[in-house]
Amino acid sequence: MADVKNYTINFGPQHPAAHGVLRLVLELDGEVIVRADPHIGLLHRGTEKLAETRTWLQTLPYLDRLDYTSMLPSEHAYCLAVERLLGVAVPIRAQYIRVMIDEMSRILNHLLSIGTHALDIGAMTMVLYTFREREDIFDVLEALTGIRMHGAYYRPGGVYRDLPDQMPKYKENKFKNAQTVKELNEARSGSLLDFLEDFTKRFPVYLSEYHTLLTDNRIWKQRTVGIGVISPERALNMGFSGPMLRGSGIEWDLRKKQPYEVYDRMDFDIPVGVNGDTYDRYLVRMEEMFQSNRIIQQCIDWLRKNPGPVITDDHKVAPPSREKMKGSMEELIHHFKLFSEGMHVPAGEAYAAIEHPKGEMGVWAVSDGANKPYRIKLHTAGIPHLAGVDELVRGHMLADATAIIGTIDLVLGDVDR
Amino acid sequence: MSAKLDRLVRQLKESFGDRIGEPVLALGEVTVAIPAENYLEAMRRLHDDPALRFEQLMDLSGIDYSEYTGYQGKRFAAVSQLLSITHNWRLRVKVFAPDDDFPVVASVTEIWNSGNWYEREAFDLFGIHFEGHVDLRRILTDYGFVGHPFRKDFPISGYVEMRYDPEQKRVIYQPVTIEPREVTPRIVREASYGKGDGRG
Known about the structure:
- The complex is a heterodimer of chains A (417) and B (200).
- Helix content of chain A is 49%, strand content 11%.
- With 417 residues, chain A is mainly alpha-helical.
- Chain B has 3 helices and 9 strands.
- The two termini of chain B are 41 Å apart.
- Chains A and B meet through helix 1, strand 6, strand 7, strand 8 and helix 15 of A and strand 3 and helix 3 of B.
């Protein structure tokens, strides 16, 4: 009998299905994976160390760069931690805006996740549709924050500014004639909330399109049902959270269990899976998008009726308005101190966690009373999920590795920090 | 929420007595410091005891306290954030490494498998060794990296930089050529600063 040895291959670091720069060393017995050893850190930027040399406010935009498929919720966790240390109250309108944006980001994230997951395992069409809808959300973010992706919009004590009254419009050019531009601008004729409301009305239709494409698709089911099964006990022990935990049947969602902001006023359901396989996690994500859509509608409703401030009036934390600053010496000093020296956060430590689209995103902030963080530890959901890949892929075929990397919704910016 | 956390504090005192430090309830979070010699046993109890039942180790990270304002004590600590799904409460556990020059604490990977990568990260970034960890390799830094970058005495710009050398036709490491620069200095103000007594 011939001597058969295991074969070791490198999956990545430059592999389109690795969702970034992941190097996965796979030990194969024939086509069956015996062991997977993920090598991470190729995108390590030292965000936590950088934060120690920046003021509390200068640290904020780095948080966007962690998970670059759902940007603003990471800022949210950071703001919650800083607010808890400072003890400032956030105006109610800002809380609604935050919830609305978090849910938009959840849709944004899951659209990318499902679209690319389907692309990775052979359903090319999905990504074309999901990116069409992502474009609408990017338009909202652009109108709101000025930037499509890395918004830097949340602030300790509220959000940077109120919702804009109008949306940017398309102009006629050599590619778009007057008729096309008119059709495109129809939804953009009103305020940002009008545009978003129009989107939330269209979105359930899109969702049912995705269901038609994938949910009963025989090939999709063959690639996902029974792949990467994880029991609830193991999922807990390995520190899984978010859809990875709910896919295994544990009803755990921080929005319900440890509500922050105004989630306790929202009416929504938590979907859970039964078998804990890739297909169940796909269904959980699909349903979460539908529930997010419901939350956005409730937020829009409330935001229309209730104008008000969107950032705290404590000028040791948030700057005064430009108008006040020009007219009052004290406000000018506040403004100057805030943007040169920065705010001082009282000594102490806080761990704030939110239900990020990928799972629990926690920020452990330690302050010694200075204008810069003493230590920031970012817990992102991706780390335990990727650490669990070894257990998930063992005994599966090589081709299933792609399906499993897709299902853990991997973003390396989030894992490597 | 507060009543529940009071219950957690009481339960901790009841279960452990003086084998752990005094639980502190601040800002709606409970923190407890555990002496290194009781650490592993206490963590196992925190996981197994039905009255406490911390099923999840959400995070474990190192911290270097050497430059903390007004701090006297051990330099390195491993800090875990525990979460109980059953009781819906959280606990932060601190364990200080007894030796500053060679920090060692016990590994909790056996109890919570999620500890594996967190401990590798704390080892990589802070040089804290976890006794009983079977696979304590570097995780985030480059292959062949020297030093522990998140220690406070490690400069933000590092010691070496990498570039392509056209003469040797390969990538080489060389000492850093950039100067660290601090635009806003780090300041800790006295307690009464900015309170406005009319003289400033």
